[in-house]
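Possible regression after last week's pipeline update?

I re-ran a chain I had predicted before the update to compare outputs. Posting the input and the new output here so someone can diff against the archived version. Not blocking, just want to make sure nothing changed silently.
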Amino acid sequence: METNKNLYQYNTFGFNVMATEYVSISSISSLQEFIKQGELANTSVLVLGGGSNILFTSDFKGLILHNQILGITKIREDDNEVDIRIGGGENWHETVINAIGNGWGGIENLSLIPGSVGAAPIQNIGAYGVEIEDTFKSLEFVHFSDGSTQEFTKEDCQFGYRDSVFKRDLKGKGMVASVTLTLSKKPSLNTSYGAIKTTLEDMSIENPTISDVSNAVIQIRRSKLPDPAEVGNAGSFFKNPVIPEHKYAELKELHRDLPGYSNGPGKIKIPAGWLIDKIGWKGYRKGSVGVHKDQALVIVHYGGGSGKEVRDLALEIKKSVYENFSIELETEVNIL
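New output (post-update):
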């Protein structure tokens, strides 16, 4: 265990914040032993993965458990599918590339999403028409209360839009040790969402492979989203709001160019980035923080600022969107 640990390299916003205590967890058994020793008692505990979905507004007065459980294992295979178990500490994008290299499809549309595998089902990450629940089979969860392990099926996880039981009833109560996905050896490509199809056409690809789709997604994301290595950010800061059809129709009368996508019976999903851009926030800068010039959904840290500045800017944006559209934005980033 380390004390007074600087978390600068463990959060993609790049804030110099300190944790009272920090420990790297490389196996289930080491975590169980740590719990058995009573190290988690009477202290705030935070599981940290890639640090790409978190905003520290101050030093963390508690214990950081850094999930670094690694390994990718094939546990079942037939002519059509393969099940792979991935350690929660594995990098998500590298896991996608590993699957593509083996010819296993299903997660290529989720290329270049930052973060760890353990965080993926917690967020139910998604992009370009695909969510992790589409290939999810199960996960192994370690309870902090007694160190016991539990297998969670897709139904147990209670997946929703960027949501799961681990963000609600089980928030802060354990760690995702591993995730098992079912991938296809005869993949059916999803190229209809967003700019994938046109990007493939621009790349002169007529019969795309899963690798081609991945490369197209990577190209799109890099053209729209800033690299955390160059400018601090946590990707999409807000969730895309889902509103009733009747409310969408009312807003459409006022804003003819308002985009919307069906999200189940009587519900429409609206791009939060469009709302933020429409009222002039894109490219805005205030001191050390601002809204990215190419993607209004991303709040950026230019260096030398604080998490409180990012939080305050996010609150201003939320207030502005509500005043203009009567829509309450929800943050996708975990604010501490």
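Follow-up from reviewer: compared with the archived run. The mean pLDDT is 91. Marking as no regression found.
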